[in-house]
Structure formats: structure tokens, C-alpha cells
Amino acid sequence: MKYKKRDKALILLADGTIFYGKSVGGKEGTSFGEICFNTGMTGYQEIFTDPSYYGQLMVTTNAHIGNYGANNEEVESDSIKIAGLICRNFSYEYSRVNADFSLEEFLNKHNLLAISDVDTRALVSYIRDNGAMNAVISTDVDNIEGLKKQLADVPNMNGLELASKVSTKEPYYFGNENATYKIAALDIGIKTNILRNFAERDAYIKVFPYNTSFEEMQAWSPDGYFLSNGPGDPEPLQEAQTLAKEVLERNLPLFGICLGHQVIALANGISTYKMHNGHRGINHPVKNLVTGNGEITSQNHGFAINREDTENHPDIEITHVHLNDDTVAGIKMKNKNCFSVQYHPEASPGPHDASYLFDQFMENIKNE
Amino acid sequence: MPKNSNLKSILIIGSGPIIIGQACEFDYSGTQALRSLREDGIETILINSNPATIMTDPSMADHVYLLPLTTKSLVKILKDHPQIDAVLPTMGGQTALNLCIEADEKGIWEDFGVEIIGVDIDAINITEDREQFRDLMTKIGVPMAPQATATSFLKGKEIAQDFGFPLCIRSSFTLGGAGAAIVYDEADFDELLSRGLEISPIHEVMIDKALLGWKEYELELLRDANDNVVIICSIENMDPMGIHTGDSITVAPAMTLSDRTFQKMRDMAIHMMRSIGDFAGGCNVQFAVSPDENEDIIAIEINPRVSRSSALASKATGYPIAKIAAKLALGYHLDELSNQITGSTSALFEPTLDYVIVKIPRWNFDKFEGSDRTLGLQMKAVGEVMGIGRSFQEAIHKATQSLEIKRNGLGADGKGYKNYDQIIDKLTNASWDRVFVIYDAIQMGIPLSRIHEITKIDMWFLKQYEELYAIEKEISTYTIDTIDKDLLLEAKQKGYGDRQIAHMLDCLESQVYNKREELGVKRVYKLVDTCAAEFKAQTPYYYSTFENDVETANGERFVDNESEVTDKKKIIVLGSGPNRIGQGIEFDYCCVHGILAASECGYETIMINCNPETVSTDFDTADKLYFEPVFWEHIYDIIKHEKPEGVIVQLGGQTALKLAEKLDRYGIKILGTSYQSLDLAEDRGSFSTLLKENNIPYPKFDTAETAEEALKVADELDFPILVRPSYVLGGQGMKIVINKQELEEHVVDLLRSIPNNKLLLDHYLDGAIEAEADAICDGENVYIIGIMEHIEPCGIHSGDSNATLPPFNLGDLVMEQIKDHTKKIALALNTVGLINIQFAVKDDKVYIIEANPRASRTVPFIAKAYGEPYVNYATKVMLGDKKVTDFDFKPHLDGYAIKQPVFSFNKFPNVNKQLGPEMKSTGESILFIESLKDDEFYDLYARRKMYLSK
Q: Is the ipTM of this complex over 0.90?
């Protein structure tokens, strides 16, 4: 192994703060997005390919990233969705028989800019104290004024509709077509592992584009409806909200995860808001208020549903709360066959504590 | 209020004397548990026979019983305190669990209406009885290695024939892998099988197919009464299967696991814990993962109690496992408790790390002459260190710098091996130095694939080593004048010490330091906060690293440092580093009390230590904890940062004391006895002049630096002669020689192992009685806190002798001489703080063997026996806050207290067990007797001359 000198790189935040680092693999470039951090210690490949992270510059807090390389299988979509990677130590060398590439090769394949050797801890503390904001990562370290100008033009995440950017253009199927149940899934940024979870539970899934109408979905005569996770602000997703309303009007089995959960809330007149810096990690504690049990969950959201609105809603019951900040983590409609959670029972990455929610949805379908 | 309001009074069982496999981590867990129960207003009763512990301090529990860990003692306690509602046996290691089971079998708990909390007996039995455990795992679908139980020699042979070699043999119901071995071929099988059967108290061994080379992991779990389970920490053993986890270099978080495999392991661990009974508390699960495309996971074992690994996990993550486990035993649910680090979030969560920790065990093979130094299934380490860094490389460097084995880190000190065959041999037969040899192998150009093939260490770790060497090579192409900031910063980020960089650049350590200052490559401090900075943390638990710059919007450039310096007056206490024979838990006891005393005097207290098993490194012991190597560069940077009033060196054993000279040279104030006095006591020439001036006798002695000189000295002294190197603790390298040939051999040997050391030669007073005194002195007044007499005659190291407090047969005349000499020496040395003096008594004349103006191994013992806080007093004296005359000394002891050393020879079957001037015991216990007619004392006295095999 030869010593390699790395080129300089930086992160410039919208408020003018700069964090210095080095470019990964000598790649040159500039990339914009909203800065966020994920505290997971495993599962970087799943995170990078999760469509919910579309348009975000990802700070990974784990000390090392890339140790076990990357492969073609442990992905949550067909490409890397984050806008850029910021880490402390980037592992150029990896070790895993099951890896198809090094992480560097994987990032190159998807043309992603990454910078390393950043004081990520200082950066995370900064985001924690000052909130999520737009940022740019760049190897163009001598052009800070130019970067500032470009950064000013990047749209704010608040009010931003991103589901259309990551949704499938055409419907597709997943699983065994002879399975007992049929689930229609609205793709507003769906993670593949959600589909795997349904398929494992004897379901055949048809995945529809973000703007599909209820009629189009109903035409396939599914047994249940699912609203997926995804990126951006839920508010502009009018078509999805309309769809949710129509499913609810007919009291058909409905399940929503993350963005889908927010869409269900909006369809019921509960408002959503942009959080200070969101929840992103695989160690988030949630309490199931129905059973009294705790769950360690995978979370990734920058928006949440309004707790007060939810509490005041006559038809909605809060089923899950986040134990760290008491935000709403799950709801159930009292007189409808519908529930949703803010977090990720499909894990990937993360613990499987909440996978019972998929069973619960299948039960809801069966009992219909 | 606790969920179970019936629990008002709880008995905790300690782990007894320190032995290999069960060290001071249980003082840490017991102390945490006691504090935790107290917070809930619970009355606590403690039994532990180890006086050198914090947990046995009168202030820690409502009632402390320093009694032997026997059911007889339990019955006595239960009779004294019929109000005891429950026993918590999970904080005192296997010893406490075994005692709890024994008491249960005898029906004692039932007789006294005592509930067992934190574990259930069935769970212990299932996890310890390997056959039951295996059946259960099969039932719940958790795979294990092919395995069978043998309760007879014949059955064992059958199994071996069935499985083929290599095989592992493990004894049931043993500690630290005692009796465990890997058998590569049939020739060794019979002997190892017999030994395994013998060691097991139930005459049972498990034989399993050896999964050599599989990757090894541990998970630390907590479960509450509501069946919520969280994983506090994942730990990866860098040394794969085949080396006991206590002897393995371990890393947290796991470095080479994908999320998929990790989550599978997490599911299995939770499933396993839920399957073994219905208890609330901590648990440790060990797994092996196949290093191939299958990534198969196999369960190795589960320990339903707080363990060595959970102490490490607590320090690694900041999550106080024992404290929370105690609360869970009371019936609390995890979601009802808060994360004490953040103060604002839930205890029901899984800590996440933005740094890496590396634990390296500390061995003491040099103390066990003839021992097998190869690492295997049976634990041999006596202590451990932990390094924290922002990368694996930085963490492993800090851990190697913490070991105090005269290495500065990996490579770059000219001490590496250069012989190919030797390197291959040392890679193959792992021992204490393999962590260094891997670097040597890479340096020599041995391909990584070959190193991997031999060691089975995951390639990721080897590549980290390789990268380090690439940096060393790069730096070596520069000089101190040409090296640039980027490269210097990178080297520091990878953990290289200034000394190592100086070696690469061929300059002085101080030049590298100055260069760093000049270029702005400054050490900064980060917080251990359980949450990777997601939340603001409340606890001052720091480690150092080096980082790139941050620039504010108005152009101010800086490196982010989380350790804010207050304007309070503050002091630093230097810790004692890893446990080793001769320097163990006693010194942690002293450091903790030093901290508490300084705090009472209004100082902000700062602790520096690198031993994860200790109370001193608990985040709520000192006002600020720097978990850093007790290594010059790190200490100096902390001192520069904090600017304390002074540094206390006399509480942390030889580790801290050795740094006194440099502290003094750099103009840093040493609190208490000055460096000059410390040096004077160590320098035999000046010290004997001092004795002569004060008319105090001492055995004839001289010093030598070569064998030639030593032989000349011998002519003057007469044999027998006691030979030893200066500046050592625990009698390392000490030997009594009776003729010139022995003398020459030993001197040559010593100079080879400890070069450039001055050797001390004393005329050995054959047949003398040994005694020692500890005293506190403020420079004007001396108070003798205790005088102890050794039961064995002179020649056995004081740490290995049974001793009584007060002396059992020294006459008034002798006692007067001891007192008089002690006072004179303490004053003549200008002692401010503690002093320990060792005496030899022959023909009613008292000779001085040595004087150590520092806390000694016996101070905690005397403090416990007399029920007095001597270290607290001594620290206040050091700080100048109090005079000796300010204290109201009220020692209380009925009869005698006997200090009994405890040995761990069973881990080294072939070792020479004879006792001598070099200390070999790993721990001690206290025994109170009413009079000298006591059978125990009579036994010890009768056997005193047996230089016996213990």
C-alpha cells in the first residue's frame, strides 16, 4: 500500500459556516442539498440508496464508513439517492466476501461526491444547535464566494415536493403472483425492503407511481393499500392525500409508513411541520401505547405530524410515541381499518423490533 | 418509586479477591449498583471479602460486611438483618452467582424469606450447564457448534473420535475459561481432558468442534421486567475464535459487520435472552460468525449477569449498565428511566458511537516463570487498557501507549522484531506482543494475505495496520523542517505519538511538540455521550483527538474543542493504568478517595486514567474525566489545557510516580511530597546517607550497573544477597542469590530485560521478621495509621505475605523502634501525604528495607480494618488544606485483621508456585479474628515457613 495524499474539500453551510475535509478518491466536484446526519453504526449502503434521503447531504456519525464494502443486494432502490456523503474516516479498503465493490467503487458507479476527514462531530453538534439547512460540499476550495452564490439558489426543503423525483414512472410488480393477498403500494419513495416484507407475508404487490388515482389502483382489485415512505414535504402531495381520503371513505385496509403516515394525517386534517433537525438513525426508542412495550426503531424523517392536532382529532388514536421527544410515532383510526407509523418497521438498516406491524397489516387485510 | 415496593432492603454480593478472570470491574459494577439502589431509598447490605475495593467503604452501603464469601457468612448477615427482602447476585461476577446458587441449594434464601432479583437460578443453571443450554438453543432454533458433554474420561474419548480434531474442551461452572483448551491432535487430548474434568466442580466438560478463525463478537444486553430488550454495545474481537475474549484485543463498535448480519445477530441475542427465564438485568451474549459468504452466526455462550465485557461496554458507550441493571432488578422498566448522559432522553435506546474504542489486555507472564505464554481458550491477562479515538488506528495506538510496557505505540520505536522466523512464530503463537508483531510483519514485507492466513485476523484490521505503516514510510521521507501541517495532522489523527514521529523524522520529541504548536496541530477533546452528538450531553467524560478546522461565517478558523476550562481552582489525579500484579485495585481505591477529598476541599477534580475496569473512570467520580493513556504526551497536553494548581502523583502507584520527574522538569507542581523527596527515597545512595544521619540501621547494600560491579559489591556484602532493579513495584525482577554464580546469572538476565537500570544489592537478613508501617505526614507532624507484621519470614514479597494488623508478636522495644524510625524518616524526607516503610526485624533490632513516600498497597486495608478514611485525610494534607493535627483519629478494631493474599496459579498449570521476593498474588482478602487463638491464624502461622505452593 502506498501513501496517498488527498485533495482538500469543504462543506459550506447556508449560514456561511465552513467545515474542512478531504475529497474521497481524488474526485472533483460540487454537490448541493439539505444537510442531515444519520447516527447508525451499520447499514450505510441501505441509507445511501433509501429514496427518502433524496436531495440530502448525508453526514454519517459512525467513525468509519465503508468497512464492509458494498454489494448489489443490500440496496433499498436502484441507485444512490443521497446528494453527497460527509464522513470522518472513509474506508478505501474493505473486507467482506459478500461485497461486490469497495464503497469507493460503488459511489463512483453512481457518480456520488463524498468528502472525508471532516470533524463530523462538530458538524453534527452544529446542526443539532442550529437546525437542518441547505449546504454544499465541494472540492472547489478556492471559490467560496462562488459556492455561496450558487447555494443561495437551492430551494428550501420546506414546501418542497420530491416524491415525483424518486417515484417509479410505470407500475411494476413484486413478489409471487400466486400469493394469497394483493397489496397496492403507492410509491412516493418506497424502500425495497418494505416490498420484501410484504412478499414474505404471502402478498403480491403492485407498485404505482406517486400520482396514481384511487380508481387506477382499485382497478387491480387489491386487498389492501399501502402508502410508502419518501422524501420531502408531505404537504404538496395533494394526489396522494386525495388517494388516502378515497381509501378511507371506503374503509379499505390502509397502512402508511413515514411520508405515507404523514399523508394519512394530512388527509385527516392533521397538520405537519418541519422538525428542527429530524430523526435519522437506527436507535430510536418508540413506545407502543397499546401494548406498553418499547421498540428500538429505524427512523428517517425531517417532517412530523402535529401532536396537538392528533390528540384533538376525534377519530384518531395515538398508538406510538417517540420516547426521546414525545413526538407522534404512530396512529390508528378508531373506526377505520387504517394505521400508520412515522418510523420504519421494514428496518434495513436497523432493528427488526417493529416488524410485527407488517403482520398487523396482513391481519387487517385478512379480517376485512 | 420502584415498581416493586416490597423491596426495601437488599443484599449485594461482591466478587471477593481479584483473580485472573475476575478483576476490579466488579468493584465498579458493585459500586454503581449500590449507588443506584440508594437513589431509590433502598437499604443496602454488602458482603465482600476484598478490602481494597471502593464498594466496601462504609459510605457506600448501609451495612458493609468484610467477611469470607461463604454461606456461613450469609447466614450471619441474614440473622443480623432479618429485614433483608432480596439478594442481588449479578454484580459480583461468577463468584457471587456461585455463592447465590449454593445458598439457594441449601435453602438459605427460602429460610430467611429472601427473594433473588436480577437473575433467576434456573437461568444461571441453564447458561452454565452446557448441555441444558445446548438443548434450549436447539429448541429455539439458535445454531451452535457441534458439541457434546462428557462427564467421564471415556465419554470424552468417544466424542473426540466422533468429531475429529481440532476440538475445544471447556469445563462447566468455571471462571475465565479455566480448564479450557484447544486440542489440535490426539496426542494432547488425554491430558487436557483430564484437567478439564478435574477443574469443573461438577466434573463435566463440553467438547465442541473448534471454530478456529471464525470472527468473534459480543453483545451487551439489558432487559426489563416488561421484556423490553436493548443492545447497549456490540464488541468485535480482533483476535478471532480460539483466543479467550478476556485475552483478545476487542473493538467497539463492531467494525466489520454489515447491517444485515448485525441485525440477525441482534435478533438472536434478544431471542436467547428472552428464552432463559424471566429476569430483569444485564446479559452478555457471545457469537461466532463464519468469515465466508454464508456469514453464518453461531451462539457461543450467554452470561446472565454483569460481566467484564459489560464494564467495558459501559466505559465504551457511556451507558451505565450496572446502574441501570440495578434499577431494572427493582422492577423499573427501561422507558421509565432516563439516559443519565443526556439527561433529556430515554434509557430505552441503543447507544451509538462516533469514535472507536480498542481494549488490549495486560499480561504479567514475567511473574509466572515457566508459564505457557501462548494465548488460548483460558484467560491469562491480569488487567486491561482501553484507548478511545476517532478512528480504529488512533484508538489502538492510544491503547498500546496505555499498556506501560515501554512501547510508544505501534512501530516507530526501533523495538520491533526483524527476524523473519521469529515474526512468523510470534504471529502463529499469539502472546502479549502479537499486537506489535503484526506491524513488524508488515514492515518486513510479509504479505497481508499471509498474515491473515496465519492469524485469521480480519483483513480490515490488517489493512488499517498497513495504512499506518504507509504513513510511517511517508513521514520518514521528511525532516522536522520539511514536514507539512497536513501530514503531521494526519499522523496525529492516526494516533502516532510525538515520540514515534520524532523517531521517523530523526529528531527530538520536544521538537515534534514545538512543530505541532507552530503549525496549529492541537489536541482537542471530545465527549463520550452515548448519542454521537445528536443530543446535548451532561456528563464530562472526555477523550482526545485531532480534527480538521471549522470556519465561522465571519472568517474565524478554529478546531472544535468540547472540553471547556472553568475558572475554578482545580487539581489533576494521575491514575494507575492497567491492573497488574503489584499494582492493582488498591491504587484505584486511593485515586478515587483522593478525588473525593479534593472535591470536599473545594477543588474541581480531574481524573486521568485508561483502565476501563475502574471506579476512577466512572463518569461521576471526578468533575472531569479524561479517559486517556497515563502517558507523558497525553498528560502534558491535558495539563496545558486545564492549567491545574497541581498534580497528585502519589496515589496512582508506580505509574503516576514515574511521571513525577518529568512533571517537575516541566515546572508543573506536584502536590504533596516533592519530586526531590520521591527521588531521594528511591536513590539508595542518598537514602542511606539520610538513614545514617538519623542513626537508623539498614542492611548493608550497594548499587551496580554491570555484572562486574555486582560481583565486586558481593565481596563486601556477604551472601545471601537480595538483587533488584530500582524504580519497580511488586518486586519485579527481585531475587535472593546465595552465591556468585547465581548473582552473575541474575544480573545478566536483569540487565537484558531492563537495560540501563541501576541494580540494588542488599545484604539479605536471613530469618528476619518483616513488618511495615504506613503513615501520614504534613512535613511537621507524623501520624502512623497502621503497623503490620508479616506472618511469613523475610524473603517473601510483602504483597504475597499474610500479615496481621496490629502485629502479633513484636515486643514493645521493637514497636518503639518502628514508630521512631517511621517518624524520623517521614520528616527527613519532607513527606507531605502518605509514606510506607518496610522493616526487617532481627534480634530485636529494626532495619529499614525501603521507604516509599506514596500510597501503598496496604493503605486501603488499614483504612478498612480501622474504619478510618486515611486517603481522604492524606489528600487534604497534600493539598495543604489540613494538618495532621486537625484530624480526630479514632481507629477501631477488635482483635486482629489478617491480610491474606490470593493467587491465580490455576491459570498456569506448569508454573513455579514458589514464593519469593517477586510478587505473584493477584488479589487479597481481609479476615477479622478476635484473638490469636483463632484456628485460621494458627494455620497460617504453622505453615509460615513452608515457602509453599499456593
A: yes
